[in-house]
Specification:
single chain, alpha+beta, six-stranded antiparallel beta barrel, four-stranded antiparallel β-sheet, 15 strands, 36% helix, rod-shaped
Length: 368
Amino acid sequence: MVRKFVLPLLAVAGLAMAINTVRTSAQVRPPNPPVAEPARSPFAFSVAGSGIIESSSENIAVGTPLAGVVAKVHVKPGDQVKKGDPLFEIDNRQLSAELGVREAALLQARAKLAKLKQSPRAEEVPPVEARLAATQATLTDARNQLEVLTAMTDQRAIVREDLQRRRDAVRIAEARVSEAQAEVALVKSGSWAPDIAIADADVAAAQAQVNSIRTDLERLIVRAPIDGQILQRNVRAGEFAQAGTANASSALILIGNTDLLHIRCDIDENDAWRLTAGAKARASLRGNGEIATDVSFVRIEPYVVPKRSLTGESTERVDTRVLQVLFSFPKGAMQAYVGQLVDVRIEAKPGQAPAAPAATTTPPANKG
């Protein structure tokens, strides 16, 4: 009896639930209202473009010319800096020690040059003059001894070897007198001009090495290239900063002038012909078309480039090329930040439909 009534009841309940599910799923639910109204074009004919906000100076990726460990960071995101203000410093202990060595070498080279220029010292002349006087006295003595032998009336009493020895002694004394006279002249003439020139060149080389180290020490302090705002900081004290090329994604510090903001707008190359330099334009924030402002034309980048910022639409191709147009607006015109995407509507020429191809008629083939 139980099975006789329970099974039909379960079947009826299942059927009722299925009918209710089908009816509920078939109901059309009204769409949720948008959080904000989409942007509307204020122009009768316009060209739409996707833009990104950047600083008026363009975003400058600051790197370091010399690699090393970061010793100190002076700024944080949002800080306003002046041109030449220090941003961060690289550890300079090694270069400071090398600077001490170079400065000591410079002092040594300068001392050698000063010594050459002050030559001869007053104390150097009397000794050489005394040696000259001694050699002259020796020469006089040798000549006197030779005259004694040559003045003898009986030359047979003179040993020929003694006479020759006395003559050689005179010649030796004369040579020593000449040598002493040359030494006195050399001392009194001072340093040789080429020696002074070489010493002067050594001083210049040592000074150049000192200046090179000082320049490298100054380069270890990375300074702001312009007056602007710190947009991003990707370096901290204790990290190793690699020298080399930098871009916005790998910059140690990103800086730009944000007093006036620019919008870099990408216009599809198919619509580029409709643009006019100086055309009016209006930009609105992504996600809220009501936050918008009129923007001023700056310039057109004359080189068409591949599109890099994709919107994710299925109709978009990665090989699309775009013409970049720059617009500007004051920082307080709307609540926007550097790097934010905006939609831009630009007043443009009306589009023209392509002409239809001329109709051609083909005469019917003769059947014959």
